[in-house]
Amino acid sequence: MDSINVLITGCGAPGIKGTLYSLENNFDGRKIRTIGTDIKDEVVGKYLCNRFYKISKPSSPKYLADLLSICKEEEVQVLLPQNTAELSVLAEHKADFEAMGTTVAVSDKSAIEIANNKYELMKKAQELGIPVPAFHLANNFDDLQRFAEQLGWPNRPVIVKPPISNGMRGLRIIDESINLKDSFYNEKPSGVFLKMKNLQEILGAEFPDLLVMEYLTKEEYTVDALNADNLTIIPRTRDLIKSGITFNGTVEKNEKIIEYSEKLSRRIGLKYAYGFQFKLDASNVPKLLESNPRIQGTMVLATFAGANIIYGAVKHALGEEMQKFDIKWGTRILRYWGGLGVKGETVLGEL
């Protein structure tokens, strides 16, 4: 089978090693030459990919020119994005890349605009009868506090987060019962828990739209998904989360989450590799939190479970027929620090 050149953006992302592992250990035994990019120069992917380029931010007018130039120079067949901020730009300009023989493995712009916007996504889920946390959209502090009260605050915590964000940026749990002094002395800093007066000091009277949401305390799930010749939906538990990244997790055949993810995938029109996040309510009903219409940080767990979604996205981008996966439900992942190595004068540590 022919070797191919694949460009992976966001090479500073925590999941870069898992992405490269999935490409290198593909089910076709195909040789893949990897070209990495990032807006920063010193990222670990620089030392793990075959070639690396520092590029402009997605908001820069130079971003597209940078990527198009690299794809031409390196004869890239498939571009795999890992950064939320670039998805809309890439989706809008897929034809520019296709003109030089590069397929961008990302959904169409209309799907990206819904999937990246948590407010629009949850409205779409409601139309499909898919459970979501109670939510409101606020653009001033008075409305935010009023919506929080409707959700049970100050007696219950509530979630506040921007409709469009990446990772845990902008997410806060407003909890009046939190002992900030005890947290200061006895917990590692996270910056997630606040009291309402702290939030008001940060935001001021008016601000861009913020979601005010029901706070769910039970188990959380991520879904790894591939829409190629057929839909592959793989829920996994998030048993231990640090800085928004799953450290411990288990692939679990949760039929309801699979059903909801299939409905959303088809209605929104998501393609290639992407994912969803759900959390259980007090009655163990899975409720949709958000979507990541790109490769996810721990998507390598699907690879370990027999469903190499990341390479599947590449294969689909090439127009090649996709097989159905034999998923090993119950497969677990435990992340650890280790595997030290040296490349030049740089010491690398695998996670």
Strand content: 25-35%
Helix share of residues? 25-40%
CATH topology descriptor of the largest domain: D-amino Acid Aminotransferase, Chain A, domain 1
CATH class of the largest domain: Alpha Beta
Q: What general form does the structure show? A: globular
Count of strand segments: 19
Radius of gyration: 21 Å
The low-pLDDT segments are none
Number of domains: 3
Distance between the termini: 31 Å
**Architecture of the largest domain in CATH?**
2-Layer Sandwich
Mean pLDDT value? 92
Order the strands across the largest sheet as they lie in space.
3-2-1-4-5
List the defining traits of the structure above.
351 residues; alpha/beta; Rossmann fold; D-amino Acid Aminotransferase, Chain A, domain 1; Dna Ligase, domain 1; 3 domains; five-stranded mixed β-sheet; 19 strands
How are the SSEs placed, and which strands pair?
Elements: E1 4-8, H1 16-24, E2 32-38, H2 45-48, E3 51-54, H3 62-74, E4 78-80, H4 87-92, H5 94-98, E5 103-104, H6 109-115, H7 118-127, E6 135-140, H8 141-150, E7 158-161, E8 172-174, H9 180-186, E9 193-194, H10 196-203, E10 206-214, E11 220-227, E12 231-237, E13 240-242, E14 245-250, H11 255-268, E15 272-280, E16 286-292, H12 300-304, H13 309-317, E17 332-334, E18 338-343, E19 346-350
Parallel strand pairs: 1-2, 1-4, 2-3, 4-5, 8-9
Antiparallel strand pairs: 6-10, 7-8, 7-10, 11-12, 11-15, 13-14, 14-17, 15-16, 18-19
